[in-house]
Amino acid sequence: MLARKLAAEGLGTLLLVATVVGSGIMAETLAGGNLAVALLGNTIATGAILYVLITMLGPVSGAHFNPAVTLAFLLRKEIAPLLACAFVAVQCAGGVAGTVLAHAMFEQPLIQQSLTVRTGAGQWLSEGVATFALVLTILGTLAARPSAVPSAVALVITAGYWFTASTSFANPAVAIARSLSDTFSGIAPADVAAFIAAQCLGAVAAWLVAHSVFDWKAQAPS
C-alpha cells in the first residue's frame, strides 16, 4: 500500500510537470511570439492533465502531487509526518523527472538552467494567493462535494494562470522542476526559494481559514 501511494505521487507529479513544461515548449513554438496564445495553450494542457491525474490517482494516494498540499494535510493530521516527508521526496523527484522527459520529447538538453527571472513582491504575493486558493479549494471541496475535487482543482489552476502575476505555480515541487528548464515555463533557480516560502505560507493560511470555515472531523493519519 505504501509503495503504491509513493508510486502514485511520483508518477502523478512527473506527468504534471511533463505536461506543464512540454505544453509550454509546444505553445511557445506554435504561438509565433504571441505570449497570450502561448500562455493559453499552457493553461489548457495543465488544467486538463490535473483533472485526469486527480481522477485516476486520487483513490490511490489522495493525488497531492504538491508539497504544499501535503503540508496542509499534515497540519490537518490526516497524513503521518514520515509519510508526508516521503510524499514530498517523491513529488520533487517526479517533478525533476517530468522536466527531463519533456526535454527529451522535444529533443532539448535534458537538464537546463532557467534564465527566466520571476521575483519581486507581486510575484511572491501571487504565489501565496495562488497556493491559498488551491489549498482552500481542495479542503473546501472535500467538505462540500468530494467527487468534484478533480474539476475544482483543474479550474482553480486554470484561473490562477490568468489572475496571478506569477501564472500560479502554487507547488514547490513544480517550482524546483521548472528551474531546470530554460523554456517558456521556466523560473531562475535563484528565485525558487522565495516562491516556495510564499507557497508554504499560502498553504498554512488556507488551512487556518478552512479550519474555521468548514466543519471538519480529522481522520487518523494514513
From TrEMBL:
Give TM segment ranges. 37-58, 79-104, 124-144, 151-172, 192-214
UniProt-listed SUPFAM superfamilies: Aquaporin-like
Name the source's superkingdom: Bacteria
Supply the InterPro entries for this chain: Aquaporin-like (IPR023271), Aquaporin_transptr (IPR034294), MIP (IPR000425), MIP_CS (IPR022357)
Going by the UniProt record, its keywords in alphabetical order are: Cell membrane, Membrane, Transmembrane, Transmembrane helix, Transport
Localization: Cell membrane
Give a yes or no for keyword Transport in this entry.
yes
The record's Gene Ontology cellular component field reads: plasma membrane
Concerning Pfam families, the annotation shows:
MIP
Name the membrane topology term.
Answer: Multi-pass membrane protein
Main localisation: membrane
Recorded hits in PROSITE patterns, A to Z, give:
MIP
Q: Name one GO molecular function term.
A: water channel activity
- Where in this chain does the entry annotate a coiled-coil region? none
PANTHER family in the cross-refs:
AQUAPORIN TRANSPORTER (PTHR19139), MIP17260P (PTHR19139:SF199)
Concerning its family, UniProt says: Belongs to the MIP/aquaporin (TC 1.A.8) family.
**Name by which UniProt lists this protein:** Aquaporin family protein
This chain's source organism reads Altererythrobacter lutimaris
